[in-house]
Amino acid sequence: MDVAGWTYIQAAHRSAFAPAGALVLGVLSGIGPCALSRGAALASLTSGASRGRVARAIVAYAAGAIAGYAAYGIVAGVAFRLAEWSAYSYAVLAAVLIGVGLASLLRADHRHGVSSEPASGVSFLLGCGGSLTLSPCCAPFVFALTASAFGDLRYGAVLLCWFAVGHVLPPR
Question: In whole angstroms, how far apart are CA 52 and each of 38, 62, 73, 99, 141?
Fold first, then answer.
């Protein structure tokens, strides 16, 4: 049996070892090219910044990723309970995303200058957004961990927080 299968069984039985397995799955998925591209985005965001600003940006990115995965665990738990409303939820989500996209385009400052000091808020959103895109490297793990929680919102969030901690560890 592989690590993923073992972790899913532990999660289904609410074992104390399930968070450790989720952490290992996060580390394994953090090696893939999808996670490395988010690291490259963070590196470009912090290029030329002071060490203190870079450290704050990295912490904000990790916090955003952890918060994003936890939010995904909670939302997925609710979604399992509300599956019959999926057509309506997609329509609402599409409307919200279109509205946010249009608002950001209309409010965008179209200057192409580069700030030498990254904002922690941007790093947090990069981490959060990266976790919610669910790349092919980590999506199977995230979906299986969420399904293993069987709609338990807190347990799903805890498992995905441990997954996120492993996922945002520095590349090996």
Answer: 20, 15, 32, 35, 33
Could you say which DSSP state residue 169 is in? S
- Highest-confidence segment of 35-49, 113-127, 148-162: 148-162
d(CA 148, CA 146): 5
Assess whether pLDDT exceeds 60 at residue 133: yes
As a whole number of angstroms, the distance between CA 106 and CA 101 comes to 9
CB 6 within 8 A of CB 145: no
Cα dihedral sign, 164-50-34-30: negative
What secondary structure letter does DSSP report for 85?
A: G
Mean pLDDT of 15-32: 88
